[in-house]
Fold each of these.
Amino acid sequence: MNETTKNLATVAVFGATGHTGRFVVAELLRREMKPIAIARNPEALAAADFPETVDRRPATVDDGDSLDRALHGAQTVINCAGPFVDTAEAAAMRAKIHYLDVCAEQLAANGTLEKFDEPARKAGVVVVPSVAFYGGLPDLMATAALGQWDSADSIEIMIGLDSWHPTAGTRITIGRIGTPKVFTGGRLIPVPPSPARAKWDFGSQIGNQTLVEVPFSEMALIPRHVKTPEVRTYLNSVAVSDVQNAATPKPKPADETGRSQQRFVIEVEVRRGSGLRRATMRGRDIYAITAPLVCEAVERLLKGKVAAAGAYAPGEIFDAKHFLADIDPEHSSFEVTESSISSREEQEGKAS
């Protein structure tokens, strides 16, 4: 090992052989960090197409000793191994290293924030769940749109995908996700049987889409640090139909990085009085975009650009606007605009 290798930030990736985990390992290497690839299946780990310099360590969540050995020498762990109701923040606390994950499940995110805040403070580390396309990205976008406002009347998240080819891990997670809830009237309640919003125009990439109310882990994240009585999330019905169809194939790589051709648009509207702020992000491949998001978070943690130790939502601990602006434009584009409720309603009237 040369001196350059010794000085690299060392980041463990649990679930490194999974679809998202591979993107994360590649992004860490691109950022000149040193990944430790951890996986439950030794054969898959040995067969993974990682550079020879990547350390490979088998471990399972039900064997605490194996996890402790796998995390030895790491400064941070990124957990990409869902379903996240089964996986292991406790090992990170024992190792006294930062913990991040990419979960979309409300129960898992909320449980991590509640259960590991005090242990993280005692260990002097930071825990951040859901640093991913679903959950963390809308949380960061809502926080960026909020700006200097200290509260909002409502936050609405509209997600449009031109298709959704789910991974095997996504299908397993959906099968165990439990009853999703929305944050309305200042409290969490089960998703109503019919969506409150029928259509949304995502522009030229995705077009005018029918929406279905489908909340993810942002329901555990945004109300934690934003004073608002209303958070609602909508996903276009095309994506919902794709993921519900057992015949929909897995994502297909379309370039040398492994990204698919899938396109996405997220628009987050924050309302306060007559004011309206909208954050918009456009990009390609919802699994691939998770890698720069979670690796940007790791980089900021390791550079000390965060608050005190403890468990936090992504938008609670990071400077959201600068965080999103720093994501490589090769992955996505981001902007925040401001108008008023009246001008928005006037535009909708003309469009109809």
Amino acid sequence: MLETLFPYKMHLYILQLEGYQVGRFLKWIRLNLTKRSANSKKRLVWTFKAAFIFYSALFYVVMFNFLLVYTLKYLGLFVGVLLATQSYLFLILGLLTLKPYEILNRKRVKRETHTKTLLLKQRGLKVIGIAGSYGKTSVKEFLYQILKTKYNVLRTPESYNTVFGVWKVVDYELDNQYDFFICEMGAYKIGEIKEICEMVVPDHAILTGINEQHMDRFKKIENTIKAKFEIVDYSNEKGITLVNGNNEYIQKNYAKHRSSCVLYASPSSGYNIKNIKSDKAGSRFTLELGGNTFEASTKLIGNSNLENISAAASMAYLLGLEPQLIVEAVSHLQSIPHRQELKTWPNGLMVIDDAYSSNVTGFKAALELLKSYSAYHKVIATPGIVELGDKTTTIHKELGELADSVCDKVFLIGKNERTLSFLEGVGSKNKVMFLNSLSELPKYITDTNNTVVLIENDLPDNY
């Protein structure tokens, strides 16, 4: 009852999901002013920041009520309690109170990380930075699995790709036992990748791809291009700079930033994967490294995974790892959870789990993978892609048209601009069904032996 009237924890949870960005938080509040519960796909993480904001908010509530009662008596008590129900106001006050400390602490963290990294680099450490709109986590994990067959390697775990995430890894784990540190770098705005580059000073860099991901934050594709190319601009010019030659935005722009870039995933680059043959057991292909070809295989499926393998294998080769070791490591690569991961549910249903997140490039690649299961009844379940800004309607309509050409059944999760635009693109409306949540899906799949389901994206509670 109290949490319904005073939803401080729920609103703090949403504020945390929105990356503590006041504008995005207030937008959510405006659209969900009366909402008092969340599905809690994740849980509120009680970091120092979250705890400070929460208890500061409670402090401000008490102080406001005390002042109102002192000045207006019973009327003040009524107004104070009414105001206290608007928990988002006091949480924002708590966040603003923390800002001066955060600014100073961010400077300290960057300085300490830079100093420690430079010291370790003097002792032989090499830093590999990875950035891009998509694929960076998979490339990081594949490169880590390949390089560790010969070297001591540390990588940023999961999606620790912010200033403070990188700082934690460097501060707590990085020491002189490591030969390589692979650092994933994320960005929601121009300048964030530059900041991380200034912290860890990359010797080598990989740019995995650029697309409309997070367009709602970047506003226009030119800003995304500028932000992602910071990995090229601020890494060592004498090191290896590997960029995706199969991405149109990179193809058109890489020469403006660094002429010495090495392209991968491009037929003419000398670093590519071709002659692909895939089945449920995995993929077999020809791996091209520096113009030399090697027959290779992997337990992984899908062109997205193979493109990411190409990036990791190419960087390992350019760093001097023997091709035989690379081919062997590729054959043992472990899939990244929820990224085109092939699963069999307990009821026997075959599922392509691509639920971690989604972007336009990955969505199309996942549909292409689903299409390859020609002997199966093909199903997709998706809530669509978030943060596409003013391209939301256009992109989802295009994806709906593509899904219509591939899928026998389309399950759209939730009714909103994303899914309604997707529906508009599907010509055969009778194949579409709306679900409230993914958990409802199994009861609508009756033929589990001859059906393959693509789960494309899963959204946190702020969406």
Amino acid sequence: MPPPDPIVLRVCGAGDRASVERLGHPPAVAAILCPSLPRRMAWRVSGTRAVSVAAVERRTGTVLGCVQFLRSRRSPHTWMFGHWRVAPAVRKRGIGRSLLLEGARGLTGARRLYSYVEWDNEGSKEAHARLGFESGSTLRGSATLGALSTIGAATPALRLDAVRTRDWDVLFAIYARAMGSLWLRLHPGLGPRNFLDGAPGGLRAIAVAVARGGPAGKGAAAGLVIWAGTGPVLFADPAACDAGLLARSALQILATRSRRDDEIRLRGLPRSLADRPGPIRFQELMGMPDVRTQWRG
């Protein structure tokens, strides 16, 4: 097959939406990759910095691939990228690599990059690895509370306690283990007072206490639950996380303020949980903590 015509990289515009959909992106994703003026204005007001880059065939104007970069609110030199896709007919010709390398060079002060890949997408994980990205030690996932509550035993007892000021050092340690060392290298400067992107007094957060002998409901904290946006997020200590802990956490959350069809986001999942079929959708962190060293020139 002859090589494609020369390509140019440029920022996506609203007029590219149909072409981006033809790459296989759903309309809602294409609308984010090719934002309208009102959406761009809303992002500016909220402080969101997002840049979508398209690889376009020079002669025909056909969009052959795209990627979007989103700047971290916690670390201005850290950028997440997603929706990285190249048209199937022109894959393995360096277009995906150019989108990331050249796109990242155009970002203001980008020093660190990361993305999340579906656990079973071996092709994407291999593509990240070829470019020098490393994998995180733990997984993240999501599931409905109702489904999660059925995957393990309901005992021993577990209790959700309100967070106290003196808990924050312990909870940050859990957060650090849940997110993994790669995440902390991607977001330097995180600590007990800022790791949840806000003042402790302004968060609706509860600790997960696991029974480890003694009276029911007493024991070491094995996780942290927060309500962020539309649903709960559980940060679990991967050393203590198993199907039973996830099920008991879901049951307790259901007893407080949630419904069975609500989605819970999960952080700190050990890789062993992904070996069994079940309701959890797993993703793997792929990160590059030092872009300037990794990608010279």
Amino acid sequence: MKKVDKNPDLLVPVLRDNPLRDMVVEYVGTKLEPESDEVTVEMVVEVFSTDFPEFLMAVAEENYIRGYSQALDDVEATYVKE
């Protein structure tokens, strides 16, 4: 199995294609002042983790619960009870 050190999606620049994204990019860009004027997904996560951690925790918890539930469903479907 190949080891992945970092999610490449974190390095993707955020497009300003709707009002919410525009607001987030503006806020994160002002706060972090990136050299290239590009705001990446990783930068957004960094700022949200310090300025709005309860939002990220809710998303992470929901993702964890859904993933765990799916894993249990997969195990149950794989091992048929006799």
